[in-house]
Structure formats: structure tokens, C-alpha cells
Amino acid sequence: MESHGESSSGNELGDFLRARRAALDPHRLGLPDDGRLRRVPGLRREELAQLAHVSIDYVVRLEQGRTRRVSRPVLDALADALQLAPDERAYLFTVADATQVTPATRPGGQKVDGQLRQLLDGMHDIPAMVLNRRMDVLAWNRGAAALLTDFAALPPVERNLIRLTFLDDAYRALYADWPRAARECVAVLRMEAGRHPDDQALSALVGELTVRDPDFRTWWADHQVRGPRQLAKTYHHPVIGSVTLDVQQFSVDTQPDQQLVAYTAPPDSPSQEALRFLLQWSAHPTDRPDTPATERGRRD
Fold first, then answer.
1. Which residues of 40-53 are buried (b: 16+ CB within 10 A; e: fewer)?
2. Span 28-53, pLDDT tens digits
3. Which residue ranges form the domains of the chain, and what is each CATH number?
4. CA distance 271 to 252
5. In Å, what is the CA distance from 94 to each residue of 24, 70, 177, 194?
6. Is the pLDDT of residue 108 over 80?
7. Exposure of 118 in the CB half-sphere (CA atoms within 13 A)
8. Which residues face 245 on adjacent strands?
9. H or E segment to which residue 218 belongs
């Protein structure tokens, strides 16, 4: 008897296929009701095999990690049968490649070039920071610290946006829709884990969050994935109140594992006015009125 609760043991391809199979509604796919009781949600293995035009035994071997060689036409057929979104399709091809020959990968770059730091410091009107593929915050400007958190006050190991999102109560409270933002973080991390299965620091981060946060543990098991895309996030900031910002992401050519992330607001919007006030407020700490200190809450 098949089970969708099987634990992951390094078989990312099989885990992903099972998770996406479980997420599909067979009735919406037009599959006939044969009267058999469905013991698990989603498609049966034989139904996936039928839709992808492969044998049931082949699907079983893929999901159990007993088949290491998967051709592109078969992967395309599986992706079509599972109705994968573009990010999910890319992830499927990534983890299928990873099950064959995985070259050793170096950890994501930690060094930020001096010119990039100079660019950050010169972005007086835009909060911005540099992240690596694990979403470690490698560098930031004054605006990013004012908008999100005082990264300089955190130990380097805690300067990670996903870690802060799940384990830091004050950072978590910034999000107007925390569950949505947190699930997006998990999907991004899952995509990177598929691309870099040998990244020990990334695996350690996943392990820590899996142990310490039940929401992360549940969402990680869902195998949702997401690549870069246009984002807008709404924050409830203690100084400027509610503000909705566009999140711009730029690759760094000299460091492929790094990206520059900037936060902007639509022109002439209330959010732009609020952001402008925050940046002025943070630029002149001695001139602003005293504000009550907020004690930061971190989870044990």
C-alpha cells in the first residue's frame, strides 16, 4: 500500500513526485471514479503512470529512488501529467539531474565586493541589501536596517531572512500576512536546496527550522517551490504603520550566488511618503523625538 507520509531520505525526486501527486484532484483531471476507496489524497500511482504514458513500475521505482536515469521526454511527460507550474517544472529537472551525478559545490559566496558595498551605501532613498542563496544577509544599508531590523545588532549566524521570519517574533510581526510570506520563504529555500543538495549550511538551516518550528516542518514537507518573480509585500512597521513595497531582485554577475534586493514604493503613493519619512527619521537619530523601545522577542 502506498503512503504519502513517507519520510525524505535524500530522495528529492521521489519526495517531490509524491507531494505533487498528492496535491492533484483526480476528478478535476477528468479521471473516472472506479468506485475504489482512495486511501490517500490525490492521484494514485497508476493514474500518474497512465497520464504520463509510462509503466506503473517505473513510477514506483522513481518514487522509491531506485531509478537514477530519467530522460527529458519522460520528465516532460511527468511535468505535464502533474500540471507543474514553471518553477515546479524547473525544480523537477533540477532534482532529477541531482539524482544522477552531482558535482561538488562550493558554499554560497559570503564576500561582498567593495564596489557593491559602495552602491548600497549610496542608495540613500532605497532600502537595499545583499543576500546569498540561503538568504543570509551579507551586507545592508541604513534604509534596510530601518525598515526590517538592526542587522548589526544580530550575531552573524542570525542574519538570515528565513530564520528571522520563523524564529524572531519582532521580525515576524512586521508582515501583514505572515503565513503567505513564510510559505514563500520555504518555497524559495526548497528550490535552492534542490539546486544545491551539497550545501551543508543550507541543510543545517533546514534542519534547525524543521526542529524548531512546526509550520516550517509542515510547509517543507509540501514540496512547494518558487523561483525569482515580481513581489509586493505589506509591512506593519512600528514607526510608519502599514506600507506596501515592491521587492526588486537583481543578480550579481561577479558573485553568481548573490543577489541585490531593493525595496521601492509606487510613485506618489502613501507608501512612498511613509518610506521617505522612515529614511529621514533613520538618518537623524539625534533629532527625532524619543520613541519607546521595543523589546525583541526570539523563540527558544
1. eebbbbebbbebbe
2. 766 666 556 566 678 888 888 888 88
3. 12-98 (1.10.260.40), 114-283 (3.30.450.180)
4. 28
5. 21, 12, 30, 6
6. no
7. 3
8. 233
9. helix 214-221
Amino acid at 99: T
Cα–Cα dist 284/278, whole Å: 10
Per-residue model confidence as pLDDT tens digits over 238-277 = 999 999 999 999 988 888 889 999 999 999 999 999 999 9
| DSSP-derived 3-state class of residue 248 | strand
- What CA–CA distances, in Å, run from 43 to 18, 191, 223? 9, 23, 16
- Edge-first strand order for the sheet with 137-140 is 137-140, 128-132, 258-264, 241-251, 231-237
Set of cell numbers at residue 176: 501583514
Instruction: Check: CB of residue 201 under 8 Å from CB of residue 151.
Output: no
CA pair distance 260, 231, nearest whole angstrom: 14
Length of the chain: 300
Characterize the bridge pairing of strands 241-251 and 137-140. unpaired
- Residues 245-253: contacts with CB under 8 Å, at least 24 apart: 245/271, 245/275, 252/113, 252/116, 252/130
- What grid cell was written down for 297? 522577542
> With contact defined as beta carbons under 8 Å apart, do 59 and 45 qualify?
yes
DSSP string for 45-94: HHHHHHHHTS-HHHHHHHHTT------HHHHHHHHHHTT--HHHHHHHHH
Determine contact, residues 182/149, Cβ cutoff 8 Å: no
What residues are paired with 258 via a beta bridge? Answer: 132
Rg over alpha carbons for the chain, rounded to the nearest Å, is 22
- 250 forms beta bridges with 260
- In this predicted structure, the answer to whether residue 7 has a pLDDT above a threshold of 50 is no
pLDDT band for 84, please (50, 70, 90 cuts): confident
Residue 129 C-alpha from the chain's centroid? 17
- Predicted TM-score (pTM) of the model is 0.71
Instruction: Give 184-236 pLDDT, tens digit per residue.
Output: 999 999 998 888 888 888 989 999 999 999 999 999 988 888 877 778 999 99
